[in-house]
Amino acid sequence: MFFFFKSSSRSVHEEHQEQPELSSETPGGDHRGTSLTVWRKSLVISCHGFTVIDSNGNLAYRVDNYVGGRPKELILMDASGKSILTMQRSKNLRLVDTWLVYGGEVGDYCTTSEESSEKPIFCVKKCINILQSNPNVLAYVYRGSSDKRYAYMIEGSYSHRSCKVVDDTKKVVAEIRRKEAGGISFGLDVFVLIVQAGLDPGFAMALVLLLDQMFS
């Protein structure tokens, strides 16, 4: 199955090359951006997780979660298994579904000690639509847990795999789309993540993981 997705990832990317905003590069991309195929399945037996393939059909990112249900922590790894980002659910029960994003791999002390040298690089908060004028908003992304102004806003429908990440100037910096190739739809467990130049593809994938926790 993995080799099938590698092949289909290349074919889908070739179809997308007609669109100038997409890239033929691996994570990191070039001035045009990056296109990734996301498979909502771990390559490790009896694990929950994600497998992410780049436009060349190579493994780009992976998530192997041994805990089912609603985990308190998620770790995004590169193809070699090195931890890139750690996402931890906020322990403040007064907050709506909120996650703190750290660089690399961290421990629980990072969310319990205010004196810790480890600080979250982003804070992602699920949007409560009844309190918002825009019902399409799914979540807000802040640079740190204390910021009041959002850095990014996620809108659309994750359940339909149709989302956009926009910055504070309303510029689209990443998109989630249904995956199709040769007239065949792959359903909800396989989809495309398109990341524009200037946004780290690993961080964009971290947002996908959090949307999956918030809306699945």
| Average pLDDT | 82
What is the helix/strand order?
HEEEEEEEEEEEEEEH
Number of strands: 14
Helix fraction by DSSP (H/I, runs of at least 4): 10-25%
Shape: globular
**Number of helical segments?**
2
Radius of gyration over all CA atoms, rounded? 17 Å
Low-confidence parts, pLDDT < 50 over ≥5 residues?
A: 12-26, 109-117
Strand residue percentage: 35-45%
Spatial gap, N to C terminus: 23 Å
Q: Name the structural class.
A: mainly beta
Largest sheet: 12 strands, antiparallel, barrel
Q: Strand arrangement, largest sheet?
A: 1-2-3-4-5-6-7-8-9-10-11-14
Structure report:
With 216 residues, the protein is mainly beta. Helix content is 14%, strand content 36%. The strands form two sheets. Strands 1-2-3-4-5-6-7-8-9-10-11-14 form a twelve-stranded antiparallel beta barrel. A two-stranded antiparallel sheet has the order 12-13.
Which terms summarize this structure?
twelve-stranded antiparallel barrel; 14 strands; mainly beta; 14% helix; 2 helices; two-stranded antiparallel sheet; globular; 216 residues; single chain
Task: Give a summary of the structure in a few sentences.
This protein has 216 residues and is mainly beta. It has helices spanning 2-16, 201-215; strands at residues 34-39, 48-53, 59-65, 73-78, 83-89, 98-103, 122-126, 137-142, 152-157, 162-167, 172-178, 180-181, 184-185, 190-195.
